[in-house]
């Protein structure tokens, strides 16, 4: 196959061989090109080729199976324009691209785009102009230098002592605390000299496996030895199931150390929000250096250097969000997926892949071990362990004698939160969200000088605003969702599309004044109540709104660690990874949040999340306790949390999934049909339903409006294919889609193993 729209002419005599090139575009497969005469282009090489009138960068690929009958004759082949100097895309990664494409029913080029995520990194290193000391000054600063100029020379000496012979202007100015003009003037005066320098500075000292780490307990050491033994011994999957605070991180670090000793690379996947915890410091404490971090917010220059460093094998350890799985490691020795149960490992847009599952696939293709760590492994993972495919390792106790916190349910029907007044006797009553038993637990904890975490997974002030006059609810114009009040910023926001507007003073529907009321709690509202009930306590809100970036997160961690905070009020981002020794009470404001809705994993996920939050309490010397407010204390999730016995819950949950043919016992594929035109969207969905695959236990449910039936202005309809485990669903889906023409403006998104049902 080739885009031959503008190819012309015949091949020159002795022209090069036919070569398949995969482009990072949603095309059905690789296109054929002609290699330069006399050159053999090995698969993996990164090349520049013409496409229509453009030039694009692609990767030489293994010839597809139909290579014997090419779609384009030799005469029409267009030439490969250049081979880039970057290291080739390694073979196991190329196979991963094909594998992921086939599994997710997406074009391979769309998956390749995940690999070539930093196009800039494929270009040769930029040479920059840097400054060093002028050769003739002999190293001694001339006597009449002013202070700023002296600092510039000192900064250059300091850099040279650390192996950096030159610094670019901006860097030098920043280090010396002078303006760029000072540096230019010094250059003119011949005090410093300009020189060309490599745009990719050498990385600093790498992680050292011999750096002294903590002494492991006998239980930890036993598990660490098992993990170490697997490094260098081919493909295997270990599930590291350890209770919260058991030291899973310290234990898997030993496998990382072994990988480093063998001179290979390791990648550790973490949910994006867990990257903003103490994790990097702990890595540094164990290895004496930081790993490379990889996530969506890493600045461009760092991404470019990171990608190249990984490809050149110079970066030994990467910690990152799911996209780190597609980095071009030439010598991968170990993959770790921490918090493996986390739903954020599933990408919902673009190529919908599950990074945990694809990590197992990459490990198999690379012939290396993978470790899945969690305090609450996914049912899918436990089922794989039960079948003997994954090897289960347990850490059943907390490190250092700390005990797991006692969990108590607070029945909201028996103990409703009391209303409160902000001002004097005439002030209006405010709805309360903290029930009396939690109020007194907070009081006791504060009196003991310990810290409290109040957990409510809702940003903003209130999830719903309505008019008490006409009942109008303020909704997003682009989505089927309510606008969330953010009182701190004075705005109503849609949490799905980002639409926002100022909070109106009159009802947009009936015009009544001062008639809008906030319904339900968000963290801002909870903070108000905390300030009223515990006026002396120093409270801190920790949400993605208040912790915009890594700096704010680090500052929050520092303040809590230093005991400058008494009550933390947090959303999901506080639920995992954090380790605060002074925190002894966790209060869950709404334990039932997340249990409603048609998501088959709702119960499992709520259990995981609350277990995780509960695990923040009592991690050091002092015992912790957890109070979960619920209106349904008899729910299996609540019972499991209160008893601390997951086994019954997991068994019931598994039995229910099995009875309904749900994962991990059956397969699901969701089709999400979306478009701006509701009629065309509906019609496409109905057409899909009419030719739905049948037989051998395969069923298609729907079309049904998605729970988010309008998102960013697009109408959404869902179909769900259910099949027994043994059925290969991808070919079924492929031929199903082939039968239905999709009109312009309508999109059919295939989601194999869906995690989100919105
Ligand atoms: N052998 C050890 N020596 C000293 N400190 C340890 C040891 N093992 C664990 N710790 C410390 O105990 C705390 C808990 O360990 P860690 O965070 O690894 O547990 P975890 O199982 O990953 O917890 P969670 O699942 O709750 O995040 C950390 O502060 C860690 O540094
Ligand atoms: Zn919206």
Termini distance?
Answer: 37 Å
Q: Whole-number average pLDDT? A: 89
CATH class of the largest domain: Alpha Beta
Structural class: alpha/beta
The CATH topology label of the largest domain is Rossmann fold
Biggest sheet overview: 7 strands, parallel
The number of domains is 6
Please describe the topology of this protein.
Elements: E1 18-22, E2 31-34, E3 46-51, E4 54-61, E5 82-83, H1 91-104, H2 108-115, E6 127-133, H3 147-161, E7 167-168, H4 169-176, H5 180-188, E8 192-198, H6 218-230, E9 236-242, H7 248-261, E10 265-269, H8 279-287, E11 292-294, H9 300-311, E12 317-320, E13 332-338, H10 355-366, E14 369-374, H11 379-386, E15 391-395, E16 406-411, E17 420-421, E18 429-430, H12 436-447, E19 451-455, E20 464-467, E21 484-486, E22 491-493, E23 500-502, E24 516-519, H13 523-533, E25 539-542, H14 550-561, E26 567-570, E27 583-588, H15 602-614, E28 625-630, H16 636-643, H17 646-659, E29 666-675, H18 678-690, E30 699-711, E31 714-724, H19 729-738, E32 746-752
Parallel strand pairs: 9-14, 9-15, 10-12, 10-13, 11-12, 13-14, 16-28, 19-26, 19-27, 25-26, 27-28
Antiparallel strand pairs: 1-2, 1-4, 3-4, 3-5, 6-7, 6-8, 17-18, 20-24, 21-22, 22-23, 29-31, 29-32, 30-31
Helix pairs in contact: 1-2, 1-10, 3-4, 4-5, 6-7, 15-16, 16-17
Bound molecules: adenosine-5'-triphosphate and zinc ion.
The site of adenosine-5'-triphosphate has 19 residues, from helix 7.
Keywords: ATP-binding, DNA replication, DNA-binding, Helicase, Hydrolase, Isomerase, Metal-binding, Nucleotide-binding, Primosome, Zinc
Cofactor: Zn(2+)
Domain Helicase ATP-binding: 229-395
């Amino acid at each position: 196959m080739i885009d031959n729209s503008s190819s012309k002419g015949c091949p020159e005599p002795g022209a090069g061989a036919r070569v398949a090139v995969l482009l990072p575009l949603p095309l059905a497969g690789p296109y054929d090109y002609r290699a330069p005469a006399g050159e053999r282009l090995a698969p993996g090489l990164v090349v520049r080729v013409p496409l229509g009138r453009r030039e694009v960068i692609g990767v030489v690929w293994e010839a597809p199976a139909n290579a014997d009958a090419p779609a384009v004759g030799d005469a029409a082949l267009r030439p490969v324009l250049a081979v880039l100097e970057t290291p080739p895309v390694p073979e196991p990664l190329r196979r991963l691209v094909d594998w992921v494409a086939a599994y997710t029913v997406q074009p391979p080029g769309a998956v390749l785009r995940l690999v070539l995520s930093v196009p800039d990194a494929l270009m040769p290193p930029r040479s920059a102009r840097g400054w060093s000391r002028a050769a003739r000054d002999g190293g001694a600063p001339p006597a009449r230098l002013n202070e700023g100029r002296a600092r510039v020379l000192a900064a250059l000496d300091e850099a040279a002592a650390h192996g950096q012979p030159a610094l670019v202007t901006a860097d030098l100015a920043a280090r010396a605390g002078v303006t760029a003009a000072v540096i230019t003037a010094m250059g003119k005066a011949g005090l410093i000299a300009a020189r060309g320098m490599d745009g990719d500075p050498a990385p600093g000292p790498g992680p050292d496996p011999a750096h002294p780490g903590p002494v492991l307990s006998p239980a930890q050491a036993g598990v660490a030895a098992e993990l170490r033994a697997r490094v260098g011994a081919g493909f295997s999957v270990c599930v590291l199931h350890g209770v919260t605070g058991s030291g899973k991180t310290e234990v898997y670090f030993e496998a990382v150390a072994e990988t480093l000793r063998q001179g290979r690379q390791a990648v550790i996947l973490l949910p994006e929000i867990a990257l903003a915890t103490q994790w990097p410091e702990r890595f540094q404490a164990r290895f004496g250096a930081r790993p490379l971090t990889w996530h969506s917010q890493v600045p461009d220059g760092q991404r470019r250097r990171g990608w190249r460093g990984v490809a050149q094998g110079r970066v030994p350890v990467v910690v990152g969000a799911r996209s780190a799985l597609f980095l071009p490691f030439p010598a991968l020795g170990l993959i770790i997926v921490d918090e493996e149960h986390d739903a954020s490992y599933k990408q919902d847009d673009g190529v919908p892949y599950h990074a945990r599952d694809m990590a197992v696939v990459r490990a198999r293709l690379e012939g290396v071990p993978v470790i899945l760590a969690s305090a609450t492994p996914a049912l899918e993972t436990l089922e794989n362990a039960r079948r003997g495919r994954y090897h289960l390792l347990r850490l059943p106790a907390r490190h250092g004698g700390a005990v797991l916190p006692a969990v108590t349910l607070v029945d909201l029907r028996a103990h409703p939160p009391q209303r409160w007044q902000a001002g004097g006797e005439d002030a209006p009553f405010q709805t309360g969200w903290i029930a009396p038993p939690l109020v007194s637990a907070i009081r006791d904890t504060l009196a003991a000088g310990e810290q409290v975490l109040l957990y409510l997974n809702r940003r903003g002030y209130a999830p719903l605003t309505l008019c008490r006059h006409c009942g109008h609810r303020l909704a997003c114009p682009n989505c089927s969702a309510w606008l969330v009040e953010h009182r701190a910023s004075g705005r109503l926001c849609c949490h799905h599309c980002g639409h926002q507007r100022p909070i109106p003073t009159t009802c947009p529907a009936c015009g009544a004044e001062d008639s809008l009321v906030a319904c339900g709690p968000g963290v801002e509202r909870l903070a108000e109540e905390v300030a009223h009930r515990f006026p002396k306590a120093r409270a801190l809100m920790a949400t993605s709104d208040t912790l915009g970036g890594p700096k704010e997160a680090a500052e929050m961690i520092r303040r809590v660690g230093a005991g400058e905070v008494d009550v933390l009020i947090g959303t999901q981002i506080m639920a995992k990874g954090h380790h605060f020794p002074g925190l002894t009470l966790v209060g869950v404001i709404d334990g039932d949040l997340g249990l409603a809705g048609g998501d088959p994993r709702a119960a499992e996920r709520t259990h995981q999340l609350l277990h995780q939050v509960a695990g923040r309490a009592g991690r050091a010397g002092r015992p912790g306790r957890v109070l979960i407010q619920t209106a349904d204390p008899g729910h299996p999730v609540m019972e499991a949390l209160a008893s601390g016995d997951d086994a019954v819950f997991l068994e019931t949950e598994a039995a229910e999934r099995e009875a309904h043919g749900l994962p991990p016992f059956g397969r699901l594929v969701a089709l999400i049909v979306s478009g701006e035109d509701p009629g065309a969207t509906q019609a496409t969905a109905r057409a899909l339903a009419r030719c739905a695959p049948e037989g051998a236990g395969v069923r298609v449910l729907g079309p049904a409006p998605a729970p988010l039936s309008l998102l960013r202005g697009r109408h959404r309809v869902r179909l769900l294919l259910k099949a027994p485990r043994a059925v290969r669903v991808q070919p079924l889906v492929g031929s199903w889609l082939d039968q239905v023409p999709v009109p312009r403006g309508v999109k059919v998104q295939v989601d194999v193993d869906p995690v989100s049902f919105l």
